[in-house]
């Protein structure tokens, strides 16, 4: 299995699949949240769905580290800590922050999320820890690591803050959707997605890995179409929606 995942051709093919999925998602919206739709099979509670979907990611990359010989390699430990910081939040904190449970999520979507997270975690963990020696400790002072980490942290702060703005719009289960204001919502409809994309671009740079690049490509493939769909939805639902606001990138897109 690890031999398969360590083949760069597999990672490149995985990125090709991301491109296909990204184009498909321009027409078929991932059916959860405001884009929920019938025909995607049985549903499960959203909170449990998020935990089930994201837990594999939290576990798989650290498992690769444990199986490796990198235990005493400082840079590898730092990579694990960065990954775990994101996924501890996403899998164990984020689902429980909302005062009201979200709309039920199709089990089929959760299953696809699990498959993605197992494969993506395995790909990143294999390249970083199971093929070849660890990075030298000096990597922590390399401009690529410092720049990538800066982008990652900036993205995580933006993502968490932007999600909290949305959460505060939903004070009761029947509150529905409102137009978010303040913070980066002044410029874009989906700063939470912008933050998430920045995080994984930062990860690709700070790990300087092909698997990291593939994760950034997948994140864009998932979230760019969804940001465009959210933006179009806001404009349809709220006639007074701020005209200058873009979907994902201020002044651009
Ligand atoms: P959304 O922005 O669609 O929704 C986030 C939460 O806020 C949901 O509970 C949603 O409710 C609520 N909400 C959104 N907009 C409004 C509004 N205008 N008024 C009131 N409530 C609102 O994000 P996702 O659910 O798609 O994603 C959640 C997190 O997961 C994000 O941080 C995202 O970056 C991350 N993610 C990462 C992916 C990746 O590829 N790495 C893929 C998907 C998500 P409701 O559910 O009812 O719409």
Spell out the key features of this protein.
8 helices, 2 strands, about 250 residues
Describe this structure in words.
By secondary structure, the chain is an all-alpha fold. Helix content is 64%, strand content 2%. It contains eight helices and two strands, in the order ααβααβαααα. It has helices at residues 2-5, 8-24, 46-67, 74-97, 107-130, 143-169, 191-207, 210-237, and strands at residues 43-44, 105-106. A two-stranded antiparallel ribbon has the order 1-2. The structure holds NADPH dihydro-nicotinamide-adenine-dinucleotide phosphate. Residues 33-34, 98, 102-103, 159, 163, 166, 169-170, 177-178, 180, 192-193, 196, 219, 222-223 line the site of NADPH dihydro-nicotinamide-adenine-dinucleotide phosphate (NDP).
Strand order of the largest sheet: 1-2
Oligomer: single chain
Mean pLDDT, all residues: 96
Q: Which term fits the overall shape?
A: globular
Q: Low-confidence segments, ≥5 residues, pLDDT <50? A: none
């Amino acid at each position: 299995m690890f031999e398969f995942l360590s083949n760069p051709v597999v990672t490149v093919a995985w990125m090709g699949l991301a491109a296909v999925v990204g184009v498909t998602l321009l027409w078929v919206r991932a059916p959860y949240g405001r884009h929920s739709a019938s025909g995607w099979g049985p549903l499960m509670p959203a909170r449990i769905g998020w935990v089930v979907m994201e837990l594999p990611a939290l576990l798989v990359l650290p498992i690769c580290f444990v199986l490796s010989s990198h235990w005493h390699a400082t840079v590898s430990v730092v990579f694990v800590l960065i990954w775990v910081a994101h996924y501890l939040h996403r899998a164990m904190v984020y689902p429980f922050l909302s005062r009201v449970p979200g709309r039920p999520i199709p089990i089929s979507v959760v299953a696809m999320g699990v498959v993605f997270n197992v494969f993506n975690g395995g790909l990143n963990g294999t390249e970083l820890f199971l093929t070849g020696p660890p990075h030298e400790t000096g990597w922590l002072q390399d401009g690529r690591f410092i720049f990538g980490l800066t982008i990652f942290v900036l993205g995580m702060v933006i993502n968490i803050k932007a999600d909290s703005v949305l959460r505060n719009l939903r004070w009761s289960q029947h509150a529905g959707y409102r137009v978010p204001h303040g913070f980066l919502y002044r410029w874009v409809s989906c700063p939470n997605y912008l933050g998430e994309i920045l995080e994984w671009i930062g990860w690709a740079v700070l790990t300087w890995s092909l698997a990291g690049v593939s994760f950034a490509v997948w994140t864009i493939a998932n979230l760019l179409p969804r940001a465009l769909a959210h933006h179009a939805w806001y404009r349809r639902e709220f006639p007074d929606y701020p005209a200058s606001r873009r979907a994902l990138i201020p002044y651009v897109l």
